Each structure stands twice: as structure tokens, then as C-alpha cells.
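Justification of resources, computational component.

The compute hours requested in this renewal are based largely on the per-chain cost of generating structure records like the one below. Each record pairs the submitted sequence with a full C-alpha cell output. That output is archived, and it is also reused by downstream analysis tasks.
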Amino acid sequence: MPSINPIQLDNILHRGVTDIIVESEFVRLLEEGKPLRLKMGFDPSRPDIHLGHAVGLRKLRELQEIGHQVVLIVGDWTAQIGDPSGQSATRQMLSAEEVRENAQTYLKQFFKVVDKSKTETVWQSEWFGKFTLDNVFDLTRRFTVAQFLARDDFANRYNAQQPIAITELLYPLLQAYDSVAINSDVEFGGSDQRFNLLVGRDLQGMLGQRQQQCFIMPLLVGTDGSQKMSKSLNNYIGVDEPASDMYGKIMSIPDHLIMSYLELTTSTSKQDLTQINKEIQAESVNPMDIKKMLARDIVSQFHDESSARESELTFVRTVQQGNEPEDIKTLFMQFSTNAEDSNKSLTINFVDLITSENLANSKSEAKRLISQNAVSINGVSSNSETNMVHPNDIIRVGRRRFLKIVEG
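The structure output for this chain reads:
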């Protein structure tokens, strides 16, 4: 394996990392020069991943490029239980079919970041499919209920007298056993997964394995500027989104997130990060220009440089200059003639229209956008869910999504 220079080592240990348990042990393993088995598991409880997930994947790719082995675990069993992290109530269980469908989408998107040819992909069912009740009892007797109630999300729900299903208590045990099953050397997870990673480390020690090191990754703040990136909070930037949508969402982040996004989602050098931060603090640079640089970088990662350039032109034309895009989406509709004004018109439900044309992810989001005056017809905002449209009307949803109504 290639040797690691001090700059590389500093980046591995400290860039985009909240904590390493135990850092000195991890450094010693690196110095031994043997390929390490790097574990990251994912529960395909939803079909898509976002930039927040990519923070950990970038670290995996960094270690992968110097010869270490990534082991990607598809949590087809734990996804059916549901990890309560950050939840205030019991999660709904998924069917095995839903899990498989989500997993295929997940894998495609993961390999936008991680090198597929250097990744070992395994499914939990490879070992849990053979589990007996004896195996489950053997796991449960190694930990106490008090240990698990010390976990923040369990403790909060217990104190609030909210239900905690027995299956949820099994979740950390099953995730921990994954580390045993693949003989993990290092596990990666967000700061909300610290408890689960440590249970895996403890279980390995109980079963006679060398204990894994735990890489705790920061949680990327979403586009709202305050809460962690999450699809349920609708503050996410999906890695599989169209280039123009991805670019526009990045441009919408608050200025105070610029530096963290540059550090966690790009390969901008430490020296450049320091210089950019100085310029922002001194107000000698327009934050908009830095965000454009950030947006070009991220869009290039998940699409290509040409898409990034086109997305920037579209952003300038539609957002900064207020014009509609050149390649505006069109919808052909049949119109009747209004007897009173002789104009062709049609009254339609905008919630259904916006949702069916993928201008919003759901009807609830469409209703929210309409109520917030984020939907306009020919530049005039409307907070009504039912509107009259005419041929060649242009509907704008938010700042970046357009639809032209065409007779036909």
C-alpha cells in the first residue's frame, strides 16, 4: 500500500470528521500498512440519498483510493425494523419488496461517489437469514435495557411516555452484529449513529474480535440553514436530482453554510478554505460568487462540467434576471372557449397539476408552496389551489421550476 504523507493523514483524521474512536488506534492500524475493512451500512427505508449521506461516502472513497477495502452493507433486515434515530415515534415497518426496490436505487446512487470496482457489497440477509431464536437470545443477553435507554432518542421517548417497540431495541444489536459478520476494522456513521457504532465495537470485543474503530461524521445542515439535511424535512439536495435543480438548491443555502459545504462536500484544499473564509469575513468577496463556485463543483461531481455550466446559465437567466428558461417544460392541454370573454381557458386544480408534472414532490408540498405564494402564473403569485389558465401561460413554482401551458 502507498505511504501516507502528513497532509493526507491530517485530511483523513480531521477533515469532515467529528470524532474517531479511538484515533490513536486507527493511526496505528494505518501505519501497519495492511488493507482495512471499512464498514458502512445503509437502510434502504427511502429510495434516494442526498448530500448529507455523501459526506461519509467521500471519506470512504478517500481511504479506498489508498488501498483500503470498502464493505457496503445493505440493511435489508434492519430497514424493516426502522432506526428510531431522530424520530419521536415508532417507525412504520417496510415490506421486503419495498426494501429491495429502494436498495437498487440506493446502490446506483452510492456508486456515484464510491468506486464500485473496489467495493464489496453484502446483504444482511446473508447472515440474518440463518439466525435462530438462540442467536437472538445470545445477542440480547449481552446488553441491558438500561444501556439502551441511555441513548438519547430512546431516553427522550421513554421520559415522554411515548411507545418504544421491542423491535427497535433490536436495531442496534443487529447493526452491531453486522460488524461481527464482516469482521469490520472501521465503521462510519453520522453523529446520530454514535451509540450504534459503539455497540458494534463492544460486541466485537465480547465475541473475541479486534474492536472496530468508529468514524463519527458531522451531519450536513440542510438548505433551511438550521436542521440536518433530511428528505422528511424537505431541506435536502438529492445526488440524483437534475443538474439545474441541484445547482439552484445549492445557491439557496444561507451564506453561513458556505464554508461547511465547501469542507464537507468538495475537495477544496485547506489553504484555499482558509483564504476563502478570510475573504468572506472581510467582506472582500461576494458570497454569491463563492456559492456559484460551490454549486459548479458539486454539480460537476454528480453530473459533469458541461451540465454545471448550463445550470449556472439557467440560474442567472431565471433567478437573477427573472426570465424563463430556454428549454422550458411544456404541457399540452385542450381548451374550451369562454363565452363571456371569448378567450380560451381552463380551470384546473394546481395541487394536482404541480404534483403530476413533478414540480413538487407530493401534494402536501404543492399545497405548502401555494399557501406560501411560491406559485405564480405569468409572474403573478396565486395562493389559490384552483386557477384558470390560458394557452401560453407560464407557471412558475419556487424559483427554478417552470411549466408552459400549450394548446394541443
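The chain has a mean pLDDT of 86. The chain is about 45% helix and 15% strand.
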